Amino acid sequence: MTTKYLLSEDQVPRRWYNVLGDLKSPPAPVLHPGTHKPVTPDDLAPLFPMALIEQEMSPEREIAIPDEVRNALTAWRPTPMYRAHGLEKAIGTRSHIYYKYEGVSPSGSHKPNTAVPQAYYNAKAGVKRLATETGAGQWGSSIAYAAGLFGLNVTVYMVKISYEQKPYRRSMMQTWGAEVFASPTNRTRAGKQILGKDPHSNGSLGIAISEAVEDAATHDDTKYSLGSVLNHVCMHQTVIGLEAQEQMKLAGEYPDVVIGCHGGGSNFAGIALPFARDKFNGKNVRLLAAEPTSCPTLTKGVYAFDYGDTVGLTPIVKMHTLGHDFMPPGIHAGGLRYHGAAPIISKLLDEKIIEAVAYAQLACFGAAVTFARSEGIIPAPESSHAIKAAIEEAKKGDAEGRSRVILFNLSGHGHFDLAAYDAYVAGKLEDFEYPRDAVAKSMASLPVIQA
Ligand SMILES: *Cc1c(COP(=O)(O)O)cnc(C)c1O
To answer: What is the reported pTM?
Structure first.
């Protein structure tokens, strides 16, 4: 009976998989926020180094991972894939459940998979400082760690409510050498604009993005860095699925369904896109993204052109969106709070290559506790959405009298999220369904794009 499927260091992938090379139709253009014309590489140059802009638009199916990046990734990669014998027994299923565990990275999630190459390409282009946003702090801590490896400074705009409620993530960022500010700040015009309207604003990811983008755009030695959503970020994460494909071979099985939780789409892309390539080549595999009912971007959002941030400074992209003025409900403890979804994931959903499902937070925390008690690892609240989806898939298989092979991505551990577990155990969490009318109302503020 095997529990862990392990690869050797020389099996860390040498190439990322770029799904843009396999799309049947080209992705929707990315539009300039001022002119609404398709952006050119030059438009993006104040924000990103050219190597990343090229990756963002590249039609190459595979892109080589530089040796320096691969060497840095070996600090924790390949990550283990487990057979969830304990969970299978706990829920009494005949299905086979596997999970890829990304919590073994220095910051405890999948995010360093893209933080490392982003820091590398920026350093190589002579950039001195990165400006970025973070919600709960997973991205900020990942980029703080990775930037340090390549000698870059980092400024993090951290959503104020998280800055106040999650001091230990801030400590991690500072330990790795980053400077951290509670957003909205008075350092940027975007921040001042928000504070002018609401001096007690709790902040949001969209606001923090506005501040980081403005910081980068107004300083020559500084670029912007984003932890999810963009094509190059999704591509960097494919090391997860590429390794998992080798590990499933070791297990002698092929998944019926591949699952990831979904916030901006990067860890789901990471596990699912290499399997999407199999699907394009005729394999029968389902790809399922699991999101919260309180931020139901894929299941209730509209597939439309929208800004990536609240203030409207970022390029306009076609994606599933709840509207760029979306404010997450305060009672939601599980992360995954971004108003949009990765354009690439949105397109694959629109084309029915992937599926999406939404779960309420009490059910997800329940699944997380079942998982912790049967598998040992305390999952990140975000990851619990994937666990919940995996359990539901197993149960559906049982109801059909069939054993399913289920693979999910455990995107991180929950060691810095224990306050959310406390709230759950104390009965302080409530479920919330983000209403369709609120989505409809926000659609009125979408940018108006002439066809
Ligand atoms: C950031 C994060 C997510 C959500 O982001 P995606 O881009 O959708 O992957 C999920 N899980 C963990 C552990 C995270 O840190």
So the answer is: 0.97
CA distance 439 to 447: 15
Distance CA 230, CA 114 (A): 11
Domains of the chain, start order: 76-108+232-439 (3.40.50.1100), 112-226 (3.40.50.1100)
Instruction: Give distance in angstroms: CA of 303 to centre of ligand 1.
Output: 21
Residue 448 CA to ligand 1 centre (angstroms): 30
Q: Which atom of ligand 1 is nearest to the CA of 135?
A: 1
Q: Which residue has the tokens 């990275």?
A: 105
DSSP string, 348-402: HHHTTSSEEEEE-HHHHHHHHHHHHHHH---B-TTTHHHHHHHHHHHHHHHHTT-
CA–CA separation, 372 and 386 (whole Å): 14
Protein residues whose CB sits closer than 6 Å to any atom of ligand 1: 109, 111, 138, 228, 261-268, 335-336, 380, 382-383, 411-412
Q: Determine the Cα–Cα distance for residues 23 and 59; give it in Å rounded to an integer.
A: 9
User: pLDDT tens for residues 157-206?
Assistant: 999 988 998 889 999 999 999 999 999 999 999 999 999 999 999 998 88
Q: How do strand 302-307 and strand 222-224 relate by DSSP bridges?
A: unpaired
